[in-house]
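Sample 1 of the test manifest.
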Amino acid sequence: MTEVVIVSDAAAGGELAARAVLAALDTRPDAVLGLATGSTPLPVYRALAELIGRERRDVSRVGAFALDEYVGLPADHPQSYRSYVAREVTGPLGLDPRLVHVPDGDPERARTAGEEYERAIEAAGGVDVQLLGIGTDGHLGFNEPGSSFASRTRVKTLTERTRRDNARFFTTPDEVPLHCVTQGLGTILRARHLLLLAFGASKAPAIAAAVEGPLTASHPASAVQLHPHATVIVDEPAASRLANLDYYRHAWANKPAWQGI
Ligand SMILES: N[C@@H]1[C@@H](O)[C@H](O)[C@@H](COP(=O)(O)O)O[C@@H]1O
């Protein structure tokens, strides 16, 4: 089932997700992480950096694959996801940069970037824990409404809504690229554990539709309902439109401690 965990705030959500990642590393020191970008996963990366330092974890064999990348931004552009991952993840967590992958957003190579990325994920043994944020239009990665549940890594055109949402990271809205390379929903569904995080009231409708709405490509995040091990970590405002809130709280409060998330 899709487990919903309601946390007090983003920092608590970040810590819970970070603990789940570290639990995966306990079983597999060469575990592969699926990285999301945007503002939502930042508390996870902060908590991970702190816990890895405090517990003196060896992360030298940990691999990572980012979900997506803009097409056409220079790789060293501060808003490219390559830069984001280097700045927020690889550096602070102390990962080996050779094991950290981001799709190739070079327009010249975009045509084959998807297939190459799929091959690299497969060669690494697949993703163990996939972090996910959610777009206000229900996108996962950059799988905009209409994306096939079977889709693989490929070039997509961003919706105007997503470009508007992401304009806050750029100097002008026109600077937001039109295209991206993103893992497909089919790629994401192959990860062994999905951790979807959302904080704030602006995400409440998208979360309700993802968890309790019909399974539909019109709301790509509803794909999480197809996954045998998906955990949705939300704060109260992001959870506010869920109909079965009482049940989620009850199930969480009575969960056997050995189960983890
Ligand atoms: N491609 C990313 C998504 O992976 C992310 O989930 C979404 C939400 O971003 P935020 O977490 O900043 O709300 O934004 C971008 O479009």
